[in-house]
């Protein structure tokens, strides 16, 4: 009994396979005839076509936004591949430290080696702790963004869009079946009209000779069958078109949902950057109360090359910014002026500096006692100090 049922099942599978092959061949033939202009194609209404176009546009841009958001949240492609594999294997992604966590850990370990009581070691501890807090904020931002923004986009692409695509393929098959029924009906009408015009028997036959059926009657029966198949195909096509239309009109709700998720993503991102800014401000205030420039180093004699007094303080004003040097009173030397090309934009910090714009040419020169990192630049009637690093001196 088991082998008989297995044999019957195998025959049914073979029959369904042949039937599927015939349907695919019929659809391919219909596609080919449509491309060659030999078959009539059932056209969809303009509103339906607009819904299809809008759905395709939504899918394409959602996919691009989803992929680029993944890149922004996780720039490392290796880490993204690893997360993808864990997701496909239905396993939990192991916790991964952020770059801020790693940097903070390195700084804390370095502080232990250098000595927590030294100025450099104590500063490393403060900065390392801040980096770890930044890493924690980043980790929380990644998790929240993934849940509030990436997950709804992925659910649409892997859920709703797959359903829409499946129904669209089914609608296309229904349309091809409808077109085939229309072609069959047209062929039957043509053959029936031709058979009615040409008799299928001769007058010279005996009067008692009775024909079982005439060619006209056969084509009339074929015509009735074709009309019935057309009505069935039209009903199935209309039903599938209505189902697909309802799914496509749901794209508007998808846009509303994605808009809400986008607003949440912006709020989470703003909160993350605000938190990072707060941590950095606290670190700056903490370091400002004990600036490295105010530390007294007694390990070297005064006047030695390593004596801090031999070097200018970073917080002290440069010779260009002292009250004894006024830009208006500086005169260019008789020789030594040069042309310079501005590499980057620079906004003046005070009235003694000159704002710069990239790719412009200015005249520069120096005067005795100036800081080597600065020059005096002129542009027409404007004059002020400019940083050397923003210039390319021309010979």
TrEMBL record:
Residues 335-395 form the SH3 domain. GO terms for biological process: membrane organization. This is Endophilin-B2. Residues 290-320 are annotated as: Disordered. Keywords: Coiled coil, Cytoplasm, SH3 domain. One of its GO terms (cellular component) is cytoplasm. InterPro entries: AH/BAR_dom_sf (IPR027267), BAR_dom (IPR004148), Endophilin_SH3RF (IPR050384), SH3-like_dom_sf (IPR036028), SH3_domain (IPR001452). Belongs to the endophilin family. Residues 33-296 form the BAR domain. It comes from Sinocyclocheilus grahami (Dianchi golden-line fish). It is found in: Cytoplasm. It comes from the Eukaryota. Residues 216-243 form a coiled coil. The keyword Methyltransferase does not apply. Homodimer, and heterodimer with SH3GLB1.
């Amino acid at each position: 009994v088991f082998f008989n049922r297995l044999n019957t099942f195998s025959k049914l599978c073979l029959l369904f396979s042949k039937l599927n092959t015939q349907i695919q061949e019929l659809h391919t033939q219909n596609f080919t005839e449509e491309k060659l202009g030999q078959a009539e194609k059932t056209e969809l209404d303009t509103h339906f076509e607009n819904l299809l176009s809008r759905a395709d546009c939504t899918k394409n841009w959602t996919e691009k936004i989803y992929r680029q958001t993944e890149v922004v949240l996780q720039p490392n492609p290796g880490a993204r591949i690893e997360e993808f594999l864990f997701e496909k294997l239905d396993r939990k992604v192991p916790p991964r430290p952020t770059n801020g966590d790693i940097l903070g850990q390195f700084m804390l370990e370095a502080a232990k080696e250098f000595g927590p009581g030294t100025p450099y070691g104590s500063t490393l501890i403060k900065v390392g702790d801040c980096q770890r807090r930044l890493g924690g904020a980043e980790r929380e931002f990644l998790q929240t963004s993934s849940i509030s923004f990436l997950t709804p986009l992925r659910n649409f692409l892997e859920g709703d869009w797959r359903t829409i695509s499946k129904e669209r393929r089914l609608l296309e098959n229904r349309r091809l079946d409808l077109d085939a029924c229309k072609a069959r009906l047209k062929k039957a009408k043509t053959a029936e009209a031709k058979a009615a015009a040409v008799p299928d028997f001769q007058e010279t036959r005996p009067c008692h000779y009775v024909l079982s059926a005439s060619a006209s009657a056969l084509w009339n029966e074929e015509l009735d069958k074709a009309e019935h198949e057309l009505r069935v195909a039209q009903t199935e096509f209309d039903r599938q078109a209505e189902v697909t239309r309802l799914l496509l009109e749901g794209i508007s709700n998808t846009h509303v949902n994605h808009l809400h998720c986008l607003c949440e993503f912006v709020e989470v991102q703003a909160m993350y950057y605000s938190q990072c800014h707060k941590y950095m401000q606290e670190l700056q205030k903490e370091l400002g109360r004990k600036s490295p420039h105010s530390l007294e180093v007694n390990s070297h004699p005064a006047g030695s090359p390593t004596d801090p007094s031999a070097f200018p303080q970073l917080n002290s004003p440069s010779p260009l910014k002292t009250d004894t040097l006024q830009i208006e009173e500086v005169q260019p030397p008789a020789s030594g002026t040069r042309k310079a090309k501005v590499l980057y934009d620079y906004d003046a910090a005070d009235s003694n500096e000159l704002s710069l714009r990239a790719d412009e040419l200015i005249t520069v020169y120096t005067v005795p006692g100036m800081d080597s990192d600065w020059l005096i630049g002129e542009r027409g009637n404007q004059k002020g100090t400019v940083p050397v690093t923003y210039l390319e001196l021309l010979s």
